[in-house]
Amino acid sequence: MMKINGTNRIGNVNEYKKSLESRTANTAGKKDKAKDQVEISATAKELLGSQGTEQAKERIEQLKNSVAAGTYHVEAKKIAEKLLPFIEN
After folding, report:
1. How far apart are CA 20 and CA 13, in angstroms?
2. φ, ψ for residue 4, nearest 5 deg
3. Scanning 8, 9, 14, 89, which has the fewest C-beta atoms within 10 Å of its C-beta?
4. pTM (2 decimals)?
5. CA angle, 52 as apex, 46 and 56 as ends, to 5°?
6. Is 52 in contact with 43 (CB distance < 8 Å)?
7. What is the mean pLDDT of each run of 10 residues along the chain (89 residues)?
8. Chain centre to alpha carbon of residue 49
9. How far, in Å, CA of 54 to CA of 60, rounded?
10. For residue 14, what pLDDT is reported?
11. Local structure of 88: helix, strand or coil
12. CA angle 45-49-46, nearest 5°?
């Protein structure tokens, strides 16, 4: 005769299932967890907003005018210097 031991293993599977269900039930309530937030102060926003805006507007107007007039000159050497590090890699 052959003796079969361990007939209670099915119960162990059920215990695992119960612990898994309890874990998922616990994590389901944590979905409303607070997310990271960044707040920029009014002073910082003011500093960022006023930083070079007049100079930038003037420069953009100059570029628009020179492109419209056909006098905008592209310096090939400057472009090549900026592209060279990407080409060498």
Report:
1. 11
2. -105, 120
3. 89
4. 0.35
5. 130
6. no
7. 62 64 65 79 81 80 94 92 85
8. 23
9. 10
10. 65
11. helix
12. 40
For the chain, the 3-state helix, strand and coil shares in percent, each to the nearest 5, are 70, 0, 30
First and final CA of the chain: distance in angstroms?
Answer: 75
Q: Say how far apart CA 67 and CA 73 lie, in whole Å.
A: 9
Angle at CA of residue 82, ends 78 and 84, nearest 5°: 110
Specify the pLDDT at position 8: 57
Residue 3, phi then psi, degrees to nearest 5: -100, 130
Look at residue 88 in the predicted model and tell me its pLDDT.
77
Q: What is the DSSP string of 9-61?
A: HHHHHHHHHHHHHHHHHHHHGGGGPPPP-----HHHHHHHHHTTHHHHHHHHH
3-state secondary structure of 79: helix
pLDDT attached to residue 2: 66
Cβ–Cβ under 8 Å, residues 72 and 66: yes
